[in-house]
Amino acid sequence: MEGADAPILAGLADLVLLHAGVFARIAAAIAVLPGMGERVVPPKVKLGLALGLTLVVAPLVHDVAGPPPRTPLGLAALLAAEAAAGLVIGVAFRLLVIALQIAGAVAAQSVGIAQLFGGVTAESEPSIATFLMLGGIALAMAAGMHVALVAGLAELYVVLPYGLAPSGDDLASWGVARVGGTFALGLSLALPFVAVGFAYNLALGALSRAMPQLLVALVGAPLIVALGLAVLWLALPELFGRWLDVAALVFAAPLSARP
């Protein structure tokens, strides 16, 4: 009887180990994903999302996954490799939101809008950065980021095979290129605010030279805040449109060197 049950038990053990490896990758990705990985999301919700996505993704990668390890050391190495791959995937999506935070920080410095309402992140950030981040997450979810995540996690088992950690050289070159692209995207999105801030300071300097007795900083502070909010209102559709174009490229190929 035991001999007849052995293949069934072995197959069940392999299935459990496969789900454990997939869970390690998905849980690591969710820990840093925008929206799902925010600190305001309860850990139980994150755990439920990871378990649910594991049940969806595991059957899709059953054929491409290699044989499971047979030793505790091998299992630990597999889980570590899968967690590292998941972090890379999650960071690829997280950098999209970081670009919006960079744009918001640069915009706030340019138009004089700082901590008006606080933030939802662990670090203090300007209110514009918080607004852009939340808006970007909402648009990403509406654009199907969660669907792209499931499809991408299944397809990425071809690029990052099951149980193999990302190569250090490839990871370093990818990280440098992607971080550089993130800063470039953030700064380009903030260019309208930089232009308005430059023009304001230039005009303020000319007015100060023409009327030294006038407290130009006191007079100009409400003006630059109003100009900043007006530019935010006017530039927001184009800003989010450009960002969504880049986000679509990342959804299609999360591990490309540049979006």
Mind explaining what this structure looks like?
The protein has 259 residues and is an all-alpha fold. It has one domain. The protein is built from eight helices and no strands. Helix 7 packs antiparallel against helix 8. The longest helix is centred in the middle third of the chain and has 40 residues. It is elongated, with a radius of gyration of 24 Å. The chain starts with a helix and ends in a 7-residue tail after the last helix. About 2% of the residues have low confidence. Belongs to the FliR/MopE/SpaR family. This is Flagellar biosynthetic protein FliR. It is a multi-pass membrane protein. InterPro entries: T3SS_IM_R. One of its GO terms (cellular component) is plasma membrane.
The average pLDDT value, as a whole number, equals 79
Beta-strand percent range: under 5%
Shape: elongated
Q: Sheet bearing the most strands, described?
A: none
Residue stretches low in confidence (pLDDT < 50, at least 5 long) are 117-122
Distance between the termini: 57 Å
Number of helices: 8
Care to count the β-strands? 0
Q: Considering DSSP H and I runs of 4 or more, what fraction of the residues is helical? A: over 70%
Radius of gyration: 24 Å
How many separate structural domains?
1
Order of helices and strands: HHHHHHHH
Estimated structural class: mainly alpha
Protein name: Flagellar biosynthetic protein FliR
Organism: Thermohalobaculum xanthum
Membrane topology: Multi-pass membrane protein
Subcellular location: Cell membrane
